[in-house]
UniProtKB/TrEMBL annotation:
Its main location: cytoplasm. Homodimer. This is Uroporphyrinogen decarboxylase. Keywords: Cytoplasm, Decarboxylase, Lyase, Porphyrin biosynthesis. Substrate binds at R26, Q27, A28, G29, R30, D75, Y156, S211, H323. The record marks D75 as: Transition state stabilizer. Catalyzes the decarboxylation of four acetate groups of uroporphyrinogen-III to yield coproporphyrinogen-III. The gene is hemE. It comes from Microbacterium paludicola.
Length: 344
């Protein structure tokens, strides 16, 4: 068990530890040469379901950067694979499904699968988390588990693959609301089962990724999306971080009525403005601009100092990027950002 005094867990509870905790979304992965070496010859989803490989990839950035948390190496589509759905991750592209879910019949077929199937097939996930947590415990570093939010999963599933504006999922909501709610409710159960498996095996906090929620207007987010995201994470025994890109127009709703301990903010919205919207009961996470990881150090340093300064307006702050680490990032820059934040 990580200590309850771990800076990440304190910040999620609303305390302000002596130094702000920091971790990076997508810290495990392509920016690390040791990751690229381990992944040779193994498909992404096979790597996710090979326990010793997933554990080692999760640990690499923690050892290298000295971040305040591990983020479990997996993918938002792993629980769908565990439910028996044909999905692959195409390098450079993203998740691709053999059969898109577009009609009421498609929805009826997929939602006939019991989300308990995910729990039953999740032993490789539990084993990977156990191996990871055994090593993280030697330094008291917490592991963050995660899952995709129903809308972001549906954005891939309805389209059949990556899309820019997620038109088909957004159309289904209003053209056939019954099918939409059935699908989103089912995805919520699937992600919840995936989260529970990680928590049972030792994850100390979880993050729900609604990466593409920024394509929704506030009213649609409230009516068609938020209730399903809330159902995925409410009453879990660990703190919940809720993240999306471009969610400024409905940031307050990202609290999920207080179910989320922390809300992630992308680089577009200054944290002091985000704090004014989010209020005194929720921690903020973010929001270093990933684009600046490639800028001269002086530029990046000023920016990071500004993010930490503005973050003081929130009840507590978990430093992170506004979205994931770009694959071409020089990893020594990430280590330097961690050292800087820990020195402030
Ligand atoms: O370090 C971490 O953050 C943990 C691992 C993690 C991965 N995917 C590993 C991964 C996490 C948290 C995710 C979540 C995920 N997957 C999200 C939400 C987070 C976000 O970035 O908004 C989304 C939208 C996906 C779907 C997905 N999987 C995409 C868009 C891609 C990239 C495709 C590409 O090649 O550009 C993936 C593949 C993926 N997931 C990789 C990694 C390390 C790259 C796989 C590789 O090495 O080829």
């Amino acid at each position: 068990m990580p200590s309850a005094d771990a800076p990440l867990l304190r910040a999620l509870r609303g305390d302000r530890p002596e130094t702000a905790p920091i971790w990076f979304m997508r810290q495990a992965g392509r920016s690390l040469p040791e990751y690229r070496e381990l992944r040779v010859g193994t498909r992404m989803l096979d790597a996710c379901l090979t326990p010793d490989l997933a554990a080692e990839i999760t640990l690499q950035p923690v050892r290298r950067h000295g971040v305040d948390a591990g983020i479990f190496f997996s993918d938002i589509v792993v629980p769908l694979r565990l439910a028996g759905i044909e999905v692959e991750i195409e390098p450079g592209r993203g998740p691709v499904f053999a059969s898109p879910i577009r009609t009421a019949d498609d929805v009826a077929r997929i939602t006939a699968i019991d989300p308990a199937e995910v729990a039953a097939a999740a032993d490789p996930v539990r084993e990977a988390v156990r191996l990871t947590v055994a090593e993280l415990d030697t330094t008291g570093t917490p592991l963050i588990g995660f899952a995709g939010a129903p809308f972001t999963l549906a954005a891939y599933l309805v389209e059949g693959g990556p899309s820019k504006e997620h038109l088909r999922a957004r159309a289904m909501m209003q053209a056939d609301p019954d099918s939409w709610h059935r699908l989103a409710g089912w995805l919520s159960g699937v992600s919840r089962a995936f989260l529970r498996a990680q928590i049972e095996a030792g994850a100390a906090a979880v993050q729900l990724f609604d990466s593409w929620a920024g394509s929704l207007d506030p009213d649609v987010f409230r009516r068609f999306v938020a209730p399903h995201s809330k159902a995925a994470v409410q009453d879990l025994p660990v703190p919940v971080i809720h993240f999306g890109v471009g969610t400024g127009p409905f940031l307050g709703d990202m609290r999920l009525d207080g179910v989320a301990s922390a809300v992630g903010v992308d680089w577009r919205l200054p944290l002091d403005e985000a704090a004014a919207i989010i209020g005194p009961d929720t921690t903020l996470q973010g929001n270093i601009d990933p684009a600046l990881l490639g800028a001269p150090w002086e530029v990046l340093e000023q920016h990071v100092r500004g993010v930490v300064e503005r973050g003081r307006a929130a009840r507590a702050h978990v430093v992170n990027l506004g979205h994931g680490v770009p694959p071409e990032t020089d990893p020594t820059v990430l280590t330097r950002v961690v050292e800087l934040v820990h020195s402030l």
